[in-house]
Structures are given as C-alpha cells and as structure tokens.
Amino acid sequence: MKTNKWIIGIFALMMLMACGEKHDGHDHEGENHEHEKELQEKKGHDHEHEADEIVFTHEQAKMCGLTTETVQPSSFHAVIHTSGMVQAQQGDEQTIVATASGILHFNRTAITEGSPVGKGESIASISSKNIQDGDPGMKARFAYEAAEKEFRRAERLVADNIISTKQYEQARLNYETAKATYQGYAGGMTQGGITVSAPISGYVKTRLVAHGEYVAVGQPIAVVAQNRRLQLRADVPESGWGQLSQIQGANFKMSYDDEIHMMSKLNGRLLSYGKALDAASVYIPVTFEFDNIGNIIPGAYAEVYLLTVARPGVISVPLSALTEEQGLKFVYIQTGKEVYHKREVKTGQDDGNRIEIVNGLKAGDKVVTKGAYQLRLASSTAAIPDHGHSH
What we know:
By secondary structure, the chain is an alpha+beta fold. Helices cover 29% and strands 37% of the residues.
C-alpha cells in the first residue's frame, strides 16, 4: 500500500513537469510571433522610406546638366502681369523719298525688308528717259547754264548803266535758283538717272515700291530703321492704376521665343505712364526704352512683367525648378550626395524669371533648378518595392 502511494506521487510529479514544459513552449511561440511581426513592420517602414527617395547618380546628373541652388530669403518685387508691344524709338527711322519723277530701278535686286544699308549708300536710281517731261536732271542743267550766261551778261550791262539795278537783281535771283536746283540733281546724276541714297545707316524696314515702278517727286520709296534703342509699351488695365507710380522696372518675353529679357540688363529705363484713360480704351500705357540687342523685332507682341514694390525676406526659385502634376506643383530637394526627394510647394507671383514660394521650402534647402524633369522621370520609372513576405 505504501509502495502504491509512492508510485502515484511520482506519476503526479511527472504530469506536472510535462504541463509546465508545454506551458513554457506556448509562451516562447507567442514571443517569437510578436518579434516576427515587429520585424515585418520595421521592414515596411524601411520600404516606405526608400520609395520616397530618388537615387540619381553623379553621372546621370552630369549628363542632364543638373544644377542646384541653396534657398535663401531675399528681395522680390510685386508684379503686374500684362501684355504689350515693342516699337521703334522716334528718330530711329527715316523715310527715303523719290527725288525725281520717273521709273525707279533698285541698284540691288536683293533690296528687301531686312537688307542692311549704309548712310549715303545709293540704293536706287530714277530715270526719266522716254518720258514726256524728259530728264529733270538734264533740264536743270540746261536751265542753270542759261541762267548763268544771263547773269554774267547782266553784270556787264549794269556796270555800264545799260540795265537797271532791278533787272540785274532779277537775273541774279534766276541764276541762284537754277544753280540750287541743278546742284540738287548734280550730286546724284548718273547715266542711269537720278540716284536715291539712304539718309542713315540701318536696315530696310519697309520697301514701298517695286523695281521698275513709276514714282513721283516726294513719293516714299522705303523706310530705313536703325533701332539702336527700342521702346516697350505695356498696356495696364485700369485696376492697376494705383500701382503705376511704384513701377521700378520690367521683364518681358517676346511672342516668338521663351527668352526672358530684363530691363536692368538692357540699359532700360521707364519713360512715362499714362495719367488718364483713353475714351476708346480701358488700358493705361506704360512705356520703357532699352538697347536693341539684335534679336528683338519691332512690331512684335510681348508678355510683360512690370516690377513694383520690392518685398524683403521672400523665398523664390527659378521657374525651371517647378514641375506640375494633377494641378499640384513640386520641386526636388537634394538631401544626399546622390539622393533627392520630391516636395509639394505653394506658389505666389512670378516675374517671368523666378517664382515666389509661399509654403514648402525653408532657408538652406538645396533645390534642383535644372534637371527637375529628368528627376521626375526617374521617380516615375523606379521599381515599386516588394512589401510582401512569406511564412
């Protein structure tokens, strides 16, 4: 009986030990599962961090000409955005007119709009041969020679008191008149007719007659322009009247290209602005003048950015730094040697060259100013990280 009690006690102890081991096994299995869950969550966070990064190597950046700019608050002008037109400055254009009546022949068949001409250069001749009135140059020469003979004769006669002083003065007046007329033709008389010369150096802006066409004395033949200085006329709506007195400069972009021209770099200055509205228009003219750098065409339209009051402490970036997706605007920030991040920004006014950043950037950020489009392509074609895992 005593032996049976010992056997039962040993069996109970063995059962308790077995249950304890089973319980400990369940605890370790739970701990392992929790640890695995934490590792998976950490791995997911790492994948999310990597997905936000754009790796762009030094070689890639060099190939696309990528450049950056460190953001620093600075002065930025308020802007009146409007349109305008470039026009020639008064006095920089002169009209060539016919000095005689007859058939006009251009000396060069290539005399067309844009042809360069020099001051005093002969560009055409006017011939009156085979025309009823005859050659005016020859007629002036004959009249001059006849008037000269009559005047010399009058000098001798008045000395001998044969004619009166009044008759002598009349002969002298006829001579001086004929001489002036002849000299006006003489300088340009050639075998081909009367020469027509350019009054200034420049280029032919407009050719008004055709080769071989009949012209009358005083008829416009062509317009020669120098365009050393040009004018920009901007049309400001009446809502901008209160800001006109604050205008300090302007930037503009011609309708035929995307280059931004700045008055500050063209020796430009504000000439005037309108003080009243025209009855036929709701716009107020603002006029600048500037140096012609050779690639600005008078008569062409322009997009104009009038610069008014300067505001300090404004963050701005070049317009080339911006990209747009679904109506939102982004810039790319360099955060490492070959690492970039895309960041959404809120923008304000732009002056055609730079744009104000209202929110999204701070001083010290290194913004990509050239190559943003290539970074956008790189981010959109990057492989999507694998977030799954197997058990």
